[in-house]
Specification:
A: Ubiquitin-like (UB roll); DNA polymerase, domain 1; 2 domains; five-stranded mixed beta sheet; 5 helices; 5 strands; B: Uridine Diphospho-n-acetylenolpyruvylglucosamine Reductase, domain 3; Enolase-like, domain 1; 3 domains; five-stranded antiparallel beta sheet; four-stranded antiparallel beta sheet; 12 helices
Chain lengths: ~150, ~290
């Protein structure tokens, strides 16, 4: 079936199986910044922004996003022109193995979009769905704090 | 590419409740309504048709003279942040949403889905049990309302039939000013609970408790009210000693289940502790 949606600010039209997961459709289209960790909604490595809100793309059926906006890590910056959040994560060493980083940055992006001056509690809460098995949580908070000071 | 639902043949996107009911009433193949869909990854339903409800206009929170109305598709995250919810009955629903899974999941999970999911760890139903919640139901026969838990426990078959769609949850406004609290005891903030407890009650001029509702979740296979504790509290003067005796009594009337998170004895002990804390939190934090 055909699904039409906005992917990283561009209109796309994709032919999917109705049971396909959004994560698989995105990765099959070259968006490898969307990672699969647990595959059941616990780890947040697959987080994308669906109509601006972070969601676990491993739990979303692809046809669900018809008519919606989907943003992946590739949609907010590039190696040549990183988003300020990406730069801050790099500068503060908030990247260890890097696997959970795209999801964490997208959760941060959504947080700062609706709350430009979050408290530490707001930050922790916004990242509560992004597990980091390297346990680099403090550096993420420091990176985000550097963007709001 | 691996599919989440391999046998799925049709993905329906109804534009109205009537159209969605039309798909349901066909009865030709196994089907599943799609809202937050966060349980799909472990339930893997063997269905041929999914009926996507997410486009239907059921994501609202409104106050009427008699009720606080919550659309069935309201996300947990929208629910917890709504001003009407923050102030209702000591903020009990906000507290129930606050630690319900993680932020990305709260964006997906809907109020109606969390209620109808029928899992022992669901948080919202426990709070709704103490608010005398009623369900708004749509069927091909029209719209109707019914009590959420006529037998005092949250059972899917009492709430909805396969031919029906839950369109909303409504809370009688007379509890808006009651004291209330929800407490979840869990290993981490985003984990399923080991025990949850919710309480709501009125307070008269002599600090006597009136019309109490006491409920627990995660303890047995279903969220349930504890009528023995409601009787114990009713008409009594609020005090820490009363709340402690209520907690001890609750631990004596419930037979908990055991699972990987906690054995039976630990759950029984923590039910008493959690209920006592919830009563004290409601008493100290709630409005008269």
């Amino acid at each position: 079936m055909i699904v039409r949606f906005t992917l990283n600010q561009s209109s796309v039209q994709l032919d999917v199986h109705p049971g396909d997961r959004l994560i698989d459709v995105l990765r099959a289209n070259g968006l490898w910044g969307v990672k699969e960790g647990c595959g059941d909604g616990n780890c947040g490595a697959c987080v994308v922004l669906l109509d601006g809100k972070p969601v676990n793309s491993c739990l979303v059926l692809a046809p669900r996003v018809d008519g919606c906006s989907v943003v992946t890590i590739e949609g907010i910056g590039s190696p040549q022109a990183p988003h300020p959040i990406q730069s801050a994560f790099a500068e503060h060493g908030a990247v260890q193995c890097g696997f959970s980083t795209p999801g964490s940055i997208l959760s941060t992006y959504a947080l700062l979009s609706e709350n430009p001056h979050p408290s530490d509690d707001d930050i922790k809460r916004a990242l509560d769905g992004n597990l980091c098995r390297c346990t680099g949580y403090v550096k993420k908070i420091e990176a985000i704090r550097s963007l709001i000071d | 590419m691996a599919q989440l639902i391999p046998g799925l043949k049709e993905y329906a996107r109804p534009q109205s409740i009537d159209e969605a009911l039309g798909f349901l009433s066909r009865g030709d193949v196994e089907m599943k309504l799609y809202a937050g869909a966060t349980s799909l990854a472990f339930s893997r339903p063997a269905v041929e048709r999914v009926i996507d409800l997410t486009r239907l206009p059921l994501s609202h929170i409104e106050k009427t003279k008699e009720f606080l109305e919550i659309g069935a598709l309201t996300s947990i995250r929208d629910l917890e942040r709504h001003p009407l919810v923050q102030s209702f009955c000591g903020g009990i629903l906000r507290q129930a949403c606050d630690r319900l899974a993680s932020t990305p999941l709260r964006n997906l999970i809907t109020a109606g889905g969390n209620l109808l999911g029928g899992f022992p760890w669901s948080d919202l139903p426990v709070a709704l049990l103490t608010l005398d919640a009623e369900l708004r139901i749509a069927s091909t026969d029209g719209h109707s309302e019914r009590s959420m838990a006529p037998k005092g426990a949250v059972r899917r078959n009492d709430m909805i039939q396969p031919s029906e769609i839950l369109t909303g949850i409504r809370l009688p406004a007379d509890r808006a000013g009651y004291r209330g609290a929800f407490i979840k005891f869990s290993r981490t903030t985003v984990d399923f609970g080991i025990v949850t407890a919710a309480v709501s009650f009125g307070i008269d001029s002599g600090n006597r408790i009136s019309d109490p509702r006491i409920a627990c979740g995660c303890v047995t296979s279903e969220a349930m009210r504890i009528p023995q504790i409601e009787d114990l509290l009713s008409g009594q003067v609020a005090s820490d000693e009363l709340f402690e005796s209520a907690g001890r009594a609750a631990a004596g009337v419930i037979t908990p289940r055991a699972d990987t998170r906690a054995p039976e004895d630990y759950r029984r002990e923590m039910l008493g502790v959690t209920l006592t804390r919830a009563l004290a939190a409601a008493w100290k934090g709630g409005r008269a």
